[in-house]
Amino acid sequence: MTLSEAFSGLQDPRTGPAQRHDLREMILMALCAVLCGADTWVDVAEWAEDNQAWLRRYLVLEHGTPSHDTFGRVFRILDATVFERCFRNWIGGIAGLIDGVVALDGKTVCGSQDGQNTALHMVSAFATGSGLCLGQEGTRGKGHEIAGIKALLETLTLKGCIVTIDAIGCQTEIAQKIVDQDGDYLLAVKDNQQSLAEALREFFNEGQCSGFGAMALRAYQTLGKDHGRIETRNHLWVSDLRWLDQPIRQHWPKLAGVGMVERIRQINGKASTERAFYIGSKGIANAETFAKAARSHWAVENSLHWVLDMTFREDDCRVRKGHAPQNLSALRKFALTLIRKDQQYPKRSLRSRRKTAERMPDYRASLLGLRPRV
């Protein structure tokens, strides 16, 4: 699916003379500009004006390029839910069926706070294997993240996927939504689920002290070394849950196992230990699958959130009004997907590829799949 096809069903919210500039052309101009380094609507408008001759090879531009105020107004009133749907359709067209781990996590866009309105909090679904953002859901404030997770899950096709969420997503309704979408889940457990957390701590503590008896216990160990730090990760996975109180077992849909990750860190001769607990459905077949899924979850921080901050300067952006912060967030993820799927310069960093798109018009056009007008 081309970008033009992805936006074909997008309704223009403007009427009359306000439609002076074509909506789909404005979206493509904004995406080109963000791909090439633009971070604000002023940047977008200036980039479009400077590259007007190149843009006319692909777009009509009947009335030239819009001002930054026009870009700001249009993306402020453009329905973010509909724009997000276009993004998901496009991702689905280029990514095909997704399997493996899908990590859901939230990130606050710090510069989007507008007066008394709290900053925008974006919940993203990230396919850790392919490095693609599958979708996003915006909420005002981190306190609404659970609602955002539920809304995002309803839009995803999860068959063959293991969905990982940190402790805020350890909710029966969320587990049920994942199961309803034909997915499996691995949820971190903390004291927001107090009875479950206490049961897991007691079980694994006693098991490590006195042994697990005849219970089938699966173990897997990994060792990491980085910058003088040595981290040993011991993973235990238990699928025999007869020891767990029946009301707790029945509370969680298709609960098939529980696990613990014990991380032992050694830095400058000093050791520290921390433990994390998880519950999962039948897709977590063994301790190795558990270990890889738990570890993969953090790719959403390193490969998505960190990149948005460092490469796209998301937290520095002061776009705040209406739907604009969420729509600009989607544009950044459009651009990130384009440069991440690039095969021409696979050894270059994401930042370097963004600069290359600014310098090399043919490379830019190939990333966007643009074809000259006849």
Description:
This protein has 374 residues and is of the alpha+beta class. Helix content is 41%, strand content 21%. It contains 15 helices and nine strands. Strands 3-2-1-4-5-9-8-7-6 form a nine-stranded mixed beta sheet, sandwiched between helices. The longest helix is centred in the middle third of the chain and has 17 residues, at 194-210. The protein is elongated and about 75 Å long. The model has no long low-confidence stretch (mean pLDDT 92).
Give a topology summary:
Layout: H1 3-6, H2 23-35, H3 41-50, H4 52-55, H5 68-77, H6 80-95, E1 100-109, E2 120-127, E3 132-140, H7 145-153, E4 161-165, H8 172-180, E5 184-189, H9 194-210, E6 218-226, E7 229-238, H10 246-251, E8 257-267, E9 270-280, H11 287-296, H12 299-310, H13 324-340, H14 350-359, H15 361-368
Helix pairs in contact: 2-3, 2-13, 3-5, 5-13, 6-13, 7-8, 14-15
